[in-house]
Amino acid sequence: SKGWLFESFAFTGFKLRKGEAQNIVYSVDYNTLSSSELQDYYDTFRAAGWEIVCSLSNIHVFSAPPGTIPIYTDRATSHDKYSRAIVNFKWSTLLFGLLSLIGFVAYYYSDNNGINTSLSIVLLIFATLCLIIAVPSVMVYCAYKYRKYRLK
Fold this sequence. Notes:
Blueprint: E1 4-10, E2 13-18, E3 25-30, H1 35-47, E4 51-56, E5 59-64, H2 75-112, H3 117-151
Antiparallel strand pairs: 1-2, 3-5, 4-5
Helix pairs in contact: 2-3
């Protein structure tokens, strides 16, 4: 409503652009589609009043005026949505959590054994960056697991 509009995804977040103030809502869908299925998928959402904002891999963001019928209105489709999202966040959480753990262990080992200081700094930076990605992934994963649990 203040003119900051979602534009696209960025590294560990998203980009906003300043535009005309609008009263809109956003909805996210997680769906893996082939390039031949994508246009029909977008057309289905357009017919329901939703406009595609952007897509990245299997994450699709739509916008619509408030009051538009939600993308997911029943338990079964909502359950499927959360199941698909959980898989994505589970793997990113595991990957970046494991990489940060390996990075911190390697840093600790290199720092305590007098190994190259430059290498220690690189390992610390690597581990920290992986942790910066892992923490939000864990939070989103837990939130989706909780939402899926509440649907039962």
